[in-house]
Design brief:
By secondary structure, this protein is α+β, with helices and mostly antiparallel strands. It contains 14 helices and 14 strands. It has a six-stranded antiparallel beta sheet with strand order 3-2-1-8-9-10, with helices on one face. Strands 4-5-6-7 form a four-stranded antiparallel beta sheet. Strands 11-12-13-14 form a four-stranded antiparallel beta sheet. Strand 6 and strand 7 form a beta hairpin.
Length: 496
Amino acid sequence: MIYTGGMPKVTDDQQMAAAEPLDLAQVRITPAQAAVAAGYEPPAAVLRTVLGRPVYELGDPGYGSTFVHADSGEIMQPLAPEEAAELASRFLAIPAAKFRFQQTLDHTDQWTFTVGRDLPLYKFIVDDEAVTEVYVSANAARVSTVTTRKSRTMAWLGTIPHWLYFESLRDNQPLWTKVVVWSSGAGCIMAVLGLGLAVTRFRKVRPFELRRAIPYRGLMRWHYVLGSLFGVVTLTWVFSGLVSMEPWAWTRAEGIRVPPGTLSGGELKLQEFPLPDAQKLQSITGSAVKRLEFSRVLGAPYFIAGFVPDDADVTGKRDRLHQPYNINGQLQAAAVVVDARTGLQHAGFEPAQLVSTLGSAIAAAHVTESEMLDGYDDYYYSRGNQLPLPVLRIKFDDPVQSWVYVDPGRGRLLSVIHKWSRLERWLYSGLHSLDFAFWYHKRPLWDIVMLVLLSGGLGTSLLGLYSGVRRLKTDLVFISNKLIGKKLPKDVAHAA
C-alpha cells in the first residue's frame, strides 16, 4: 500500500490529462442559454468536450447533471454502449476495436463502490497486454474507473485485505463497519495479552543470562523475541486502525459550520458569464484548455481554466489513503483563474477579505488568528505535494477550536479541522503511518524504518499463527481421543 496506493481510481488530474482539448470556436450558446435549455439554474457548471463536441455539464458532478451541447443547445442523452466505448478509447488512447462490451452495471462491483453515484456503468474488457478493464458512466459521460491486471493484483495484496474491502461485505455498510471495529478490537486485546505474557513469562535467573531467561525453544522462542520487540508497534497499528473507524462519539464530533455559499457570495449566476475568449485563455495557460469551470467567488464571476502543464505528473497515486477529516483539492488538476468580466488572469484573492468574509458568516465564533502558509503544517500536508499551496489557515475560538483552511488561489474552502479531529489525526495517521514531520519527507529513511517494523510485525504474526494452529491441532486430537476413550499417546498428554 505504501508504493501502490489504494483502490484503483481515476483522479481529477488524470481526467484532465486524458480529456480532449476544448474547441471554443464550436461554442455557439452562452452558459445562461444552456441553463434555459436545461430548465433550471444549476448550482455548478462546467464546459468540457465529449466525443469531439463541447458540452455544458450543469449540476454538481456525482449528484446528477444535465448535459447541453454547446454548439447546438440540444440536451445530450445518456451514452449508448458504442459511444461509451469510443469515449474510453479516446481516454486511454487505445483503438476502439480493442474494447469488448461485457455488461451494464446497475449496482457497484469490487472496483466501483466508491463511484456509486456514476451508475449505471458500462464495463468493457480491453484486448491489451495490461488486461485493462474500463467502467464508463452512461449518465455522467466520463470514464469512472480503470483497472489493470497489475492494479487489481496490488489491491488484492494490499488495500482489499487491509480494509476488508470485499464486495459482498462492502455492500452491507453497517455490517462492514461492525466487522472492522470488532476484529480490530479483538486484535488490540490479543496484542495486549501477548505483551503481558512477554513480561510475566520472562524468567528471573541468577546470574542473569538472556538465553535462560526466555522460557521457549525453537519457533516459539523466535515468536517470543519478535513479539517482545515489535509487540508495541503491532498494538499501535491495530489500535490506530480501530480509531480510523471512528467508533466513539468524540471521533465524530463536528467543528464550526461554514454556511454554504459563504465564499462564493451567493448562488451561481450564469448570465454573468460571456462566451470565453479562446485566444486570451490560450495565451494565459500556454497549453490547450481542456475544461472551463464557471465559478463565483466573493460575489464576482470567474472562469477556472483547467489544463495540463508540460511537466505534469499524472500517475494518480495518492499518498494518503485515509484521514480523519476531509481535505478537498488532492490531486486536483492545474488551472488558472480568469476574471470573466475582463478576461484577465486573476492573481488570487486577498487573504484579509477571505478572513473577513468567513468571520462575518460564522456568528458562533470569532477569528483568533490567520496565517498564509507557503508549506504544509501537521494537519494539512502531503508527501507528494498533492494538496494546493499556498493555503490560508484561519483559527476560531469556538468550543472545539476549529481551524479553517482556504485555497486563496481559487477562493475555495478546503477543510475544517477541530481539536478532536486533530487528536484523531495523531491517534490514527500518526500511529498508523508514522507521518511525523521530522522524517515523513525524508525518504528513504521513513521507508527503511517502516519496512523494518512491518517485517517484524509480519514475522511475529506468522509465527504466532503457525504456533497457534499447531497447538489447536494438538488440542483437537486430545479432545477427540478423550471423547472416544482412546488411550492418549505421551506426546499429546500435555495438551490438557
